[in-house]
Specification:
The complex is a heterodimer of chains A (about 160) and B (about 170). By secondary structure, chain A is α+β, with helices and mostly antiparallel strands. Chain A has five helices and six strands; from the N terminus they run αβαβαββββαα. With about 170 residues, chain B is of the alpha+beta class. At the A-B interface, α3, β3, β4 and α4 of A face α2, β1 and α3 of B. β3 of chain A pairs antiparallel with β1 of chain B.
């Protein structure tokens, strides 16, 4: 019985570390992009703590990294971002016309919650990489129109 | 004997894939590179069952039930800045996968505007899969819905999950 518990714990840890690795891998890739500079967000740890307790707008947890820079990513960059995860993104939006780019990976976790990792880039605005554990309703609102998928990250 | 066994094992996944209503859409990287806008949506069964609970208010309960039973919704949509910027062989590649189990139920043809083909894969009294090919001079959309599809309720899915609005009853053949 204890062996089963250990195996279960190991599997859970592996799943959790995969999600963590996806976010970290995406952030590392973004860190390496020429012209992109990571912005320091004051009080982010306190905000995360508040989110854990209050769940504003159905968000139960988040990690956030914001970049500034007006780099315009091409299709090769886009594919490089996609390859930061072994999972296929649920939504991929890329505009060569405006340079806007959005990638969303999502998977159900516990009790009707969804874990999402999002990259939202607009050449005229900050770039956001966010991992969030959200209520399914929040996700459904976004995938109803994937062209506006990056809005969730900006909010 | 070993070779036969290996060949058999190799055939099983592709046969199962073909019978499931899922098609392989081989989109070359160059297509996304030349497209001015591209949208890809990949929703598998687990995600759909989850998302079905939160469909917009105008989707009735029956549509939610239909979505819950689906195995996947896959949408590939590309817009281009000039006419005929994409290789039509992509569509041919999709059509080539649609064997005798598939039936074309809708064809909309236009020399200058939208060309739409809708294929279904009947499975007894239900439909096991659906493919929509919508090709315009500057736009290409391929939709694959896998699982039991109720055609009467299909129109309700337009605009949901990135599925474009392509059902135009007055153009049906």
């Amino acid at each position: 019985m204890s062996r089963r518990i250990v195996l279960f714990a190991a599997a859970a840890a592996l799943l959790a570390s995969t999600a963590w690795a996806d976010f970290s891998s995406l952030v590392r890739t973004m860190d390496g992009e020429r012209g992109m500079h990571r912005l320091w967000t004051p009080g982010i740890s306190l905000a995360r703590l508040a989110v854990w307790m209050v769940h504003p707008d159905g968000v139960h947890d988040f990690q956030l990294v914001v970049y500034e820079g007006h780099t315009r990513f091409d299709s090769a960059d886009f594919e490089r971002f996609v390859r930061t995860s072994n999972e296929q993104p649920m939504i991929r939006v890329h505009s060569n016309r405006t340079g806007e780019l959005a990638l969303i990976w999502a998977r159900p976790v516990r009790g009707g919650l969804m874990e999402m990792t999002i990259l939202a880039h607009d050449p005229g605005d900050d770039t956001v990489v966010v991992r969030a554990v959200v209520d399914g309703e929040v996700l459904a609102r976004e995938i109803a129109d994937p062209r506006h998928a990056s809005d969730i990250a900006r909010r | 004997m070993r070779r036969i066994l290996i060949a058999f094992l190799l055939i099983i996944p592709s046969a199962a894939w073909a019978q499931s209503g899922r098609i392989r859409v081989a989109i070359p990287d160059s297509l996304a590179a030349t497209a001015s806008e591209s949208v890809d949506v990949t929703l598998d069964g687990a995600m759909l069952r989850f998302a079905a609970r939160f469909l917009s208010d105008d989707a009735d309960r029956e549509v939610q039930d239909m979505v819950r039973k689906l195995d996947g919704i896959y949408v590939h949509s590309y817009e281009f800045d000039r006419d005929d910027a994409y290789d039509r062989s992509i569509l041919a590649g999709v059509r080539a996968q649609l064997g005798p189990a598939w039936q074309r139920i809708v064809t909309v043809k236009s020399k200058t505007r939208e060309n739409v083909e809708i294929y279904t894969m009947p499975n007894g009294k239900t439909i096991a899969g659906l493919v929509i090919l919508a090709a315009e001079p500057r736009e290409l959309t391929i939709v694959n819905i896998v699982g039991p599809v109720d055609l009467d309720k299909l129109a309700s899915l337009e605009g949901q999950f990135g599925i474009p609005r392509v059902m135009k009853g007055d153009h049906h053949e």
